[in-house]
Amino acid sequence: MIKYLGSKRRLVPVLGAITEVSGARRALDLFTGTTRVAQEMKRRGAHVTSVDTARYSEVFAQCYVALDGATADSGAIEEALRDLAARPGYDGYFTETFGVQSRYVQPHNGRRIDAMRDAIESEYRGTWLYPVLLTSLIEAADRVDSTTGLQMAYVKQWADRSYRDIELRVPALVAGAGAAVRGDACAVAATLGSFDVAYLDPPYNQHRYFTNYHVWETLVAWDAPEHYGVACKRIDARDTSTKSVFNDRRAMPRALLGLVRDIDAELVVVSYNNESWVKIDELEEACRSRGGAVATLAFDSKRYIGAQIGIHNPAGEKVGRVSHLRNVEYVVCAGDQGIVDRISDHGDELWRMPAPSAS
Fold it and tell me: What is the pTM of this model?
């Protein structure tokens, strides 16, 4: 999977086990991001509905969640990837914008991305292969990018991995059924139906995923947008329609607590941390308002990569110090007393389970 701020890679075994312990057959991942958690829920036997506002997230969900990996034609995928890999590269919007005007990928890879993305759009759009090929391309581009994981900036000197030639790989598809929904969680939650378990992992602060991963947004939209700033962010990043209530300090608590109270699920699971805008006791109180039992698992965790690197000025000089390197990750569970008790009893054991590989 791609490098991603807010990725729940370390929590995936915990959340997967919670799904299994609860006996869930219908699961909802309401802020699915890269779909890591949704994929694990699907592996545990649940039919998963993945929801997010991001274009790239919808593509991942169509590939990893909605598509049944057990019945997908692997030979057709391999043949299509060979076809794309053979396309000669050329200078296009992606190369000029993200390889010359900014430095996310080196131009030799930008040219190949331009050629392969054009071919996906013209020859595969409307087919079941479309999201699979787009997923492969995004993941391939991520492996040769020159960032620390966020696309608000790129590193001063080309990252070592950026010199490698881009390589398409077959995505690790997951057996089973699911659904992909692109939409705002607050707007669509009431339309999705009922679930055995609903997992909520909302944004924690003012930083927007739309701008943090604007390169992937453009790679999926393939609309050659006007851009601004040294990071070449999409011009629509300035549009209020691309801003989320979950990035508004005043509005976010009401939106989150309202979702927790109103989501139609037997078990609600919310991951959060001690650096967010909503205090843990407020979140627990919202969970209690649903009725039933509430248990909170707390895990010590390493902070995101930017916090570990520190603060630098545009010249690349370190100008600030790191305040702390670790935080506390919470998993709040609200539902039937018996299920919540079993989750609580196994919390420490679940956290010691190995995290899934980064592939």
Answer: 0.87
